[in-house]
Amino acid sequence: MSLHSVDTALGTRRTDLRRILDRALARGRPTREEAYALIHAEGGDLAALMAGAAALRDAHHGRVVSYSRNVFVPLTNLCRDKCAYCTFARPPTDPRARTLTPDEVLAIAQAGQAQGCKEALFSLGDRPEQVHARAREDLRRLGYPSTLAYLRDMCRLVVEETGLLPHANPGVLTPEELAELRPVTASMGIMLESVSERLLEPGQAHFGCPDKVPAARLAMMEAAGRLAIPFTTGILIGIGETREERVDSLFAIAELHQRYGHIQEVIVQNFRAKPDIRFRDRPEPSVFEMLRTLAVARLILGGAMHIQAPPNLTPGAYGLYLLAGIDDWGGVSPVTLDRINPEAPWPKLAELRQVTQEAGHTLVERLAIYPEYITPQHVAPEMWTRVKRQAQALAAPRPVAHPAHPVGSHSIGERP
Ligand code: SF4
After folding, report:
1. How many beta carbons lie within 10 A of that of residue 358, not counting itself?
2. By the 8 A CB rule, do 76 and 125 touch?
3. In this structure, is residue 318 part of a structural domain?
4. 379 domain residue, yes or no
5. Residue to mutate, 123, 126, 233, ligand 1, most ligand atoms under 8 Å from C-beta
6. Per-residue confidence of the chain (416 residues) as pLDDT tens digits?
7. Distance (Å) from CA 15 to ligand 1 centroid
8. Sign of the CA dihedral 41, 43, 49, 54?
9. Does any domain span residue 128?
10. Pocket test for ligand 1, best of 75, 83, 85 (most atoms within 8 A of CB)
11. Which of 123, 174, 288, 301 is such that its CA lies 20 to 30 A from the CA of 23?
12. Domain count, the chain
C-alpha cells in the first residue's frame, strides 16, 4: 500500500471526526457539540486535530513561542482551602508553614533582578486568616489587617525597589479588592480549573474548598474584565473532571473573553501525583490527554489567544505540546523553584530554547503582561512607566498578534 498524502493517511480512520474537524476549522471555531466529539480524538484523528490547532496558532502567532523570566514569591503557604492535589498549602502545625517577611520578599525579587528576571509571580493561599489563628498572628506581627493588604504592599515594595512587574495570584477577590491591587500589578490571574460543581462533593478534588466554587471564580474573572485587567486563567486536567467538562470550562473562558477581551493567556495544566496529597494514588493524565486537550483549547479559544502548558510538568516530552498549538511556556525561573510543583524542576533556559527550536519555533522572552495589553486601557497609570521600561528592556520584544486578528481588538498604545 502506498501513502498518497498525509491527508489520506490521517483520514483513513474515524472519518466522522475528520469531517467535524474540517467544519470547525472552516467556520473558525467548533460548536460545543463538535468540541465534545473532538476531545475524544485518537490516532490519526488526534494527529489531524493537532495539525489543525498548530496551523491556527501559526496563522496568528507565527513560529514564535514565549516565556516569562520570573521569580516565584510564595507570600504565604497558609490557605483556607484543602484541594486534594495541593502541596503548596501547609497546615499551620506543619513546620514548613510560613508567611514571608518583607525582607524575604525583597531578597527573592533582588535575586531575580540580578538574573535578569522581569516578573515577580506572587502566589499565596486563599484568605488563610479566616480560618487559621496562625495566619492572623503572622499578619498581626507584620502589622497588616489581611493577607490582601499585605500582598498589596509587597507588590508595591517589589516594583519600587527592583522594577520587577508583579503578577498576582491571590485567589478569589471581590471587585473592590481587584481594584486595590491593580495599581501595583501588571497582570493578575486565577485558574478557573474546572466549571464542574461535582468536584466540590465529598471525595472529589475541591471538597472543603470555598474558593473553588466555579461561579465564584467566574465572577472574579468577569469583575477583572470590567476593570480591563490583563488576566491569566486556565484549566487543570486530571482532577476528576470529564473531557466534556473540560470543554465546558474552555467555553466559559472563551465567552468571558469575547465579552471583555481581557484574558491574555490560558494555561492547560496537568495534574501531577505527589506522595503527600489526598490524590496521591490518582493516575496522572497522559501526554496524549494533554495533546488532545491543548488542541481543542486552541480551536475553542481561537488563534489569537495565548495558550500555555508548563514544561516542567512533562519532562522529556513537553516539546510535543508545540505540535498541539501552544505558543507559550509560562513563567520559567532561573532563580526559584516551582513551589506549586516543587518536585518538578524548571527546564534550564538553554534546554527550553533547544526543544523549542527542534520543533521549528523561536523562543522569545515576554513580560508578565503580553504586548497586546500594554495599552492605557489595561495598564494602571501608576504602572505605566514601569511597564514601558521593562518592555523596552527586552532585547527582542515579541511581535504582537497578527494585525488582522488583534487580541481582544486592542492595540499597543501610548499613554499620552
Ligand atoms: S490549590 Fe490553592 S486554593 Fe487549593 S489548597 Fe492549594 S493554595 Fe489553597
Report:
1. 10
2. yes
3. yes
4. yes
5. 126
6. 344 454 555 544 456 999 999 999 999 999 999 999 999 999 999 999 999 999 999 999 999 999 999 999 999 999 999 999 998 999 999 999 999 999 999 999 999 999 999 999 999 999 999 999 999 999 999 999 999 999 999 999 999 999 999 999 999 999 999 999 999 999 999 999 999 999 999 999 999 999 999 999 999 999 999 999 999 999 999 999 999 999 999 999 999 999 999 999 999 999 999 998 999 999 999 999 999 999 999 999 999 999 999 999 999 999 999 999 999 999 998 887 666 666 666 678 899 999 999 999 999 999 999 999 999 999 999 999 999 999 988 854 444 444 333 333 333 333 32
7. 42
8. positive
9. no
10. 83
11. 288
12. 1
- Nearest-atom number in ligand 1 for the CA of 77 is 7
Pocket perturbation via mutation, ligand 1, pick of 72, 77, 85, 86 by most ligand atoms within 8 A of CB: 86
Which own/partner pairs from 271-275 qualify as long-range (CB within 8 Å, at least 24 positions apart)? Answer: 271/85, 271/236, 271/237, 271/238, 271/239, 272/85, 272/313, 272/341, 272/343, 272/344, 274/85, 274/87, 274/341, 274/343
Range(s) of the domain holding residue 304: 61-70+168-409
Residue of 80, 87, 88, 90 to mutate, ligand 1, most atoms within 8 A of C-beta: 88
Centroid of ligand 1 to alpha carbon of 249 (angstroms): 19
Indicate whether 376 belongs to any domain.
Answer: yes
**Residue with CA nearest ligand 1 atom 7:** 125
- Residues 203 and 214: their CA atoms lie apart, in Å, by 17
Say how many Å lie between the CA of residue 86 and the centre of ligand 1: 6
Q: What is the pTM of this model?
A: 0.91
Ligand 1: residues with CB < 6 A are 79, 81-83, 86, 88-89, 125-126, 209, 211
CATH at residue 202: 3.20.20.70
Is 96 exposed, middle or buried, given 0-12, 13-18 or 19+ CB atoms closer than 10 A?
exposed
CA distances from 218 to 192, 222, 230 (A): 7, 6, 15
Give distance in angstroms: CA of 350 to centre of ligand 1.
31
* Total residue count of the chain as it appears in this document: 416
Cα–Cα distance between 247 and 264 in angstroms, integer? 19
Q: How far is the CA of 281 from the centre of ligand 1 (A)?
A: 19
**How far is Cα 20 from Cα 16, in angstroms, rounded to an integer?**
6
